[in-house]
UniProtKB/TrEMBL annotation:
GO molecular function annotation: ATP binding; protein kinase activity
Domain (Protein kinase): residue spans on this chain: 1-164
InterPro entries found in the cross-reference section: Kinase-like_dom_sf (IPR011009), Prot_kinase_dom (IPR000719), Ser/Thr_kinase_AS (IPR008271)
Name by which UniProt lists this protein: Protein kinase domain-containing protein
Length: 164
């Protein structure tokens, strides 16, 4: 058995962030393109670091589904803080929803903050209806900020509306 450790974004050094962000992207691409799986609840808390090689792995596939699976059969839920503005929380997740959540996870890695952490679920849903997302300006690395912006806009976020 290959043991893994929780992925604690709060203790990641600035030097490690870029590599971990790339690894998060590669892991999501592999899940989508090779395994044809939609995770449905991508967030740092659902990532582990494997002890043998210090690589990221996903955990908690309770909300996942296979790409070709009938979306009407999905009976999961999602973490509201990572919900894409274009997603109905009562409907099955899509690849785009995973990419939006990936963007927020990378934002969290660089900002050190959980998205919308100080808001109640109904407040988050109201912001999402208005296409709000997180404040991208907290990421000072322009290439990373552009990657995050691309993922967030794919999920329906209006990038000019960044919640602090």
């Amino acid at each position: 058995m290959d043991l893994a450790l929780p992925f604690d974004y709060t203790v990641i050094s600035a030097q490690q962030r870029d590599g971990l962000a790339r690894e998060m992207i590669n892991l999501t691409q592999k899940l989508h393109n090779t395994q044809c799986v939609i995770h449905g609840d991508i967030k740092p808390e659902n990532m582990l670091i494997r002890r043998s090689d210090f690589r990221l792995i996903f955990c908690d596939f309770a909300e996942s589904r296979i790409r070709d699976e009938d979306p009407n059969r999905w009976q999961g839920a999602t973490t509201i803080n990572y919900l894409a503005p274009n997603r109905d929380p009562n409907k099955a997740p899509t690849f785009v929803d995973d990419l939006y959540a990936l963007g927020l996870s990378i934002w969290q890695l660089y900002s050190g903050r959980k998205p919308f952490a100080n808001l109640e679920p109904d407040q988050i849903l109201e912001l999402l209806k208005q296409k709000w997302t997180v404040d991208l300006n907290v990421i000072t690395d322009a290439p990373i900020r552009n990657i995050v912006a691309r993922y967030l806009s794919m999920g329906g976020a209006t990038l000019e509306k960044g919640y602090p």
